[in-house]
Amino acid sequence: IWGIDHLLRNRGGxxxxxxxxxxxxxxxxxxxxxxxxxxGYFGSPLPVTLAAKQGQALLAGSQxxxxxxxxxxxxxxxxxxxxxxxxxxxxxxxxxIKLADRWAPVIIWPLAYAAAYxxxxxxxxxxxxxxxxxxxxxxxxxxxxxxxxxxESKVRRYPFWVAAAALGVLALLQGSDLAQVRQRSDTRxxxxxAAGEWLAENTPQEASVGSLEIxxxxxxxxxxxxxxxxxxxxxxxxxxxxxxxxxxxxxxAVERFQPGFLALRENDVPxxxxxxxAENCQISKIFSGSAYGHEQDLYxxxxx
Length: 304
Fold this sequence. Notes:
The chain has helices at 2-9, 15-18, 21-42, 48-56, 65-77, 80-99, 104-120, 132-149, 160-183, 188-202, 215-221, 234-237, 246-257, 270-280, and strands at residues 209-211, 225-227, 261-265, 282-287, 298-302. By secondary structure, it is α/β, with parallel strands linked by helices. Helix 8 runs antiparallel to helix 9 (160-183). It is globular, with a radius of gyration of 25 Å. The mean pLDDT is 86.
């Protein structure tokens, strides 16, 4: 986006000025070795997780990024302050287009990002929406500037205090929201960390561990992980479809890869817990969710 913006702004000058050769060569020198290595070692420069998350979007009860973005927009539209911010953002976008402002790449990049993720049809993890926030905030700021200054009589000019008052109100409301968000921390983190540390201390180093959410547990366990969501084992992602769910993928992954241990919260994948785990494993450790501020207990199964 920034490269295109640079070319457009310098389209009338000599070629040496239009093309930022030094930046382009530096970018190529950084990127090319990785592309060559990943193509030779992995078979593709594209991550396995891309196919996995496209498969996850097909699972029963899941949705694609575009649908998730619309649902998020509807939720925020029910809050008056965000409707006001959306109006300011639209005004800020108009100001950028009208004046060919230097902020244009900052506004356009999140739009291109959203379009790309929608076309990729991946499942909408909530953190996928975070890159949209900086562009939205910038557009809101430009909208406030447009209110205060006016531009070519196309945007009505208001007294500076009107924009300042709007900014103050939005700052207070956003501060209140931020305080509420801080109180809604993800309570899985502490119990997952405790489970990972226990696995690191009480299981053989070569023992594999199967789980539905592998990140924190795997980081602290330092054990080979079997991932029921298909992010590590492409074969598991290949089992995803419109008539399947994580229950089927978890059972298939455990039967296929035979992990020595399972780390599962109660009712995460009850079909696996009531079937395979009950028949082939024994509970080695129970982490009480209430001790970590979490609503679910976590069980470590020994399936060796």
